[in-house]
Write a structure and sequence with these properties.
Layout lengths: L7 H11 L11 E5 L2 E4 L4 E4 L2 H4 L8 H13 L12 H12 L3 E5 L2 H18 L9 E5 L8 H5 L4 H4 L9 E4 L4 H7 L4 E6 L15 H11 L3 E5 L23 E4 L11 E5 L1 H4 L15 H16 L2 H17 L6 E7 L2 E6 L6 H10 L2 E2 L1 E3 L3 E4 L7 H25 L7
Parallel strand pairs: 3-13, 5-6, 5-7, 7-8, 8-9
Antiparallel strand pairs: 1-2, 2-3, 4-10, 9-10, 11-12, 12-15, 14-15
The structure holds pyridoxal-5'-phosphate.
């Protein structure tokens, strides 16, 4: 086996040689992190303003999360669900009480939680709503992102996610996001569920009009259609409430969680639902070897406790509003809209001037790690443990980058008399 020689270029070239080309990472090689900070192999320090796509909400290697992990590993690892374990019931009870849902099926990745919800909704459609065999349909939104399995990408509206992965079996109807009238029109007697994100994350941090979710819930109830909310990105305090749905409704019929539920160190996801929906499962109908194992349960439990005891949702609401206000006040011609809720913030870059990727690379050179979503939006989703002074520091760096870009653009223009 060849040794890694240790330069940034070597690490990157080795990845390029052996890894499927699916990501386009920023050109640094990280090897250490702590709290909101990360370091590369050259010793450069960066502020993490992406938060592992909303997974690292408690700060990297949070001591409480690490302790929960090591304490559990000293006792037991993964015996699988062939047996009962002492941690799973405690985790399930805590998660149900925290979300207000009745029952849970723990899984690992976010996509698996979504798949579980789709299975539950379809079976509920047949067994409870009495939809004719194989006719159940689920309504989804344009611009959705729910994961990468073949079934999930089959109802994506982004061709890049789908090309070459068909045939797709269908059963999904796509409507515009944020449009209640479109939902009313799309519902048929065979509709079993409406699946959506309360804020579209990958879609560009798109916040629907106020009242949307409330109206959606009313329409779903009236038509006996399940409301399934994917809070894999928006849940666990990210948007300034424990769950984003709490801004408008009591609870959905089904809820998907993931990302931060594993404390940022381990994949833990869950599909939660009302008892009526979850009762469609019997032994043999669904499962997961690792889902709900003692390590996952210990981490899920500690994540819930941390969020509650450290009041991180409130912190997210306050700091997110502060960040949005400060970014808007920059008043740069390079910035379009700044939007979001809590510490899930999207900054739109005017495509006439630059791409979001270019701005991310410039920010990286100033010590800030963020990532574009699509061509024009930069997602800011730092750990919820971030301090106000670190937000100030970041906004100053963003201002510097924008000022330098504006100056460069101005100097590239011909002198006035020659235009
Ligand atoms: C809203 C939403 N749903 C589902 C997923 C998929 O999660 P995972 O990558 O863990 O499968 C993501 C990931 O970004 C997401 O943002």
């Amino acid at each position: 086996m060849t040794e890694t020689s240790g330069t940034t270029k070597d690490y990157i070239e080795r990845e390029k040689r052996y890894l499927a080309y699916m990501y386009n990472p920023l050109p640094i090689v990280l090897n250490r992190n702590d709290g909101v900070w990360m370091w590369d192999t050259e010793g450069n320090k960066y502020l993490d303003f992406l938060g592992a796509y909303c997974s690292a909400s408690f700060g990297h290697r949070n001591p409480r999360i690490l302790k929960a992990l090591t304490d559990q590993l000293e006792k037991m690892d993964v015996p699988a669900r062939a047996f009962h374990t002492d941690k799973l019931g405690e985790f399930a009870e805590a998660l149900c009480k925290f979300t207000g849902m009745d029952m849970v099926q723990p899984m690992n990745s976010g996509a698996e939680a979504v798949e579980t919800g789709i299975k539950a909704a379809r079976r509920w459609g047949y067994d409870v709503k009495k939809i004719p065999k194989d006719k159940a349909r689920i309504i989804v939104c344009q611009g959705n992102f729910h994961g990468r399995t073949t079934m999930i990408v089959s109802f994506s509206s982004d061709e890049d996610y789908k090309r070459g992965f068909g045939p797709f079996d269908g059963g999904f109807d796509i409507i515009p996001y944020g449009d209640v009238e479109a939902l009313k029109k799309a519902i048929t007697p065979n509709t079993c569920a409406f699946l959506l994100e309360p804020i579209q994350g990958e879609g560009g941090i798109l916040v629907p009009p106020e009242g949307y979710l409330r109206e959606v819930q009313a329409v779903c109830k009236k038509n006996n259609v399940l409301l399934l909310l994917d809070e894999i990105q928006t849940g666990m305090g990210r948007t300034g409430k424990d769950f984003c749905f709490q801004y408008e409704i009591d609870r959905p019929d089904g809820l998907m969680l993931g990302k931060a539920l594993g404390g940022g160190v381990y994949p833990v996801s869950a599909f939660l639902a009302t008892r009526e929906v979850m009762n469609v499962f019997q032994p043999g109908s669904h499962g997961s070897t690792f889902g709900g194992n003692p390590v996952a349960s210990a981490l899920g439990l500690e994540s819930i406790r941390l969020l509650q005891e450290e009041k991180l949702s409130e912190r997210s609401a306050e700091l997110g509003a502060y960040l949005i206000k400060k970014l808007k006040a920059l008043n740069s011609p390079f910035i379009g809209e700044v939007r979001g809720k809590g510490l899930l913030v999207g900054m739109e870059i005017d495509s006439q001037h630059a791409t979001a990727r270019e701005v991310c690379e410039l920010l990286m050179h100033k010590g800030i790690l963020s990532k574009e979503t699509h061509d024009t939006v930069i997602r800011f989703s730092p750990p919820l443990t971030i301090e106000k002074k670190e937000l100030d520091w970041t906004v100053e760096r963003v201002a510097e980058v924008l000022r330098e870009m504006e100056e460069e653009k101005a100097s590239a223009l011909p002198a006035v008399g020659k235009r």
